[in-house]
């Protein structure tokens, strides 16, 4: 785990957050994706850090495959949020309309606290099918910056560098979680805190 200098602390007139992405806490996931529940699992105390989580589905899939684990998405969000107040958790992914298994998985996510943002996969110039969701992630981060103290981004995609740089000037703490071998150094340098996903694998994988 790497903690960078908190370059945006001067712009933030809040109590610094001392927790990290390994912190545990009780969290009640929103019953559906449309429910905005900023005080999930909270007793109303204003001192608790408000956090939003954005997950790059494709990046996480390849990272988990590299680690040889299957992610438990309920454990994942609890691990990332800890004892803080979850505003929203987003999951971004490309979708194959003919893939029934994937549709069932995304429906499960939407019913267990995640807001799913998706695009149909389309052929790229190299013939591979992809879905570019960088713009959606960047816009959502800017919107969320008005309502939360911390944004946790689970992605290593260097295309998000400019968005993270802009976010840091909004006075929001940036936590980056990703597999280091699949992460842009520019993203790591911009984050206030970086956590290698490999360090969390025992906390986020499905129990057998």
Mean pLDDT across residues: 81
> What is the helix fraction of residues, given as a range?
25-40%
Taking the alpha carbons of the first and last residues, their distance comes to: 26 Å
The poorly predicted ranges are 5-47
**What is the overall shape?**
globular
Sequence of secondary-structure elements: EEHHEHEEEHEHEHEH
Number of strands: 9
Q: Tell me the structural class.
A: alpha/beta
The tally of helices reads: 7
Rg over alpha carbons: 16 Å
Report strand order across the widest sheet: 1-9-8-7-2-3-4
Q: What is the quaternary state of this protein?
A: single chain
In words, what does this structure look like?
By secondary structure, this protein is of the alpha/beta class. The chain has 7 helices and 9 strands, in the order ββααβαβββαβαβαβα. The protein has helices at 57-67, 73-81, 100-110, 134-144, 161-168, 185-190, 201-204, and strands at 2-3, 50-56, 85-95, 114-120, 122-123, 129-130, 150-154, 173-178, 193-196. Strands 1-9-8-7-2-3-4 form a 7-stranded mixed β-sheet, with helices on both faces. A two-stranded antiparallel sheet has the order 5-6. The model is unreliable at 5-47 (pLDDT under 50).
Question: What's the structural blueprint in terms of helices and strands?
Answer:
Elements: E1 2-3, E2 50-56, H1 57-67, H2 73-81, E3 85-95, H3 100-110, E4 114-120, E5 122-123, E6 129-130, H4 134-144, E7 150-154, H5 161-168, E8 173-178, H6 185-190, E9 193-196, H7 201-204
Parallel strand pairs: 2-3, 2-7, 3-4, 7-8, 8-9
Antiparallel strand pairs: 1-9, 5-6
Helix pairs in contact: 4-5
């Amino acid at each position: 785990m790497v903690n960078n200098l908190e370059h945006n602390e001067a712009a933030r007139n809040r109590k610094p957050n001392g927790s990290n992405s390994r912190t545990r806490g009780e969290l009640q996931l929103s019953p559906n994706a449309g429910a905005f529940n900023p005080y999930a699992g909270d007793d109303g105390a204003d001192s608790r850090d408000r956090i939003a989580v954005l997950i790059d589905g494709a990046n996480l899939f390849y990272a988990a495959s590299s680690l040889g684990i299957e992610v438990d998405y309920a454990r994942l969000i609890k691990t990332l949020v800890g004892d803080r107040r979850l505003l929203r958790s987003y999951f971004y992914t490309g979708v194959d309309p003919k893939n029934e298994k994937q549709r069932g998985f995304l429906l499960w996510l939407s019913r267990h606290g995640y807001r799913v943002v998706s695009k149909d996969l389309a052929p790229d110039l190299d013939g591979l099918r992809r879905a570019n969701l960088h713009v959606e992630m960047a816009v959502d981060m800017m919107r969320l910056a008005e309502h939360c103290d911390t944004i946790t981004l689970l992605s290593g995609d260097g295309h998000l560098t400019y968005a993270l740089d802009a976010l840091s000037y909004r006075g929001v703490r940036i936590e980056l979680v990703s597999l280091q071998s699949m992460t842009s150094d520019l993203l790591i340098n911009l984050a206030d805190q970086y956590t290698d996903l490999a360090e969390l694998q025992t906390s986020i994988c499905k129990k057998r």
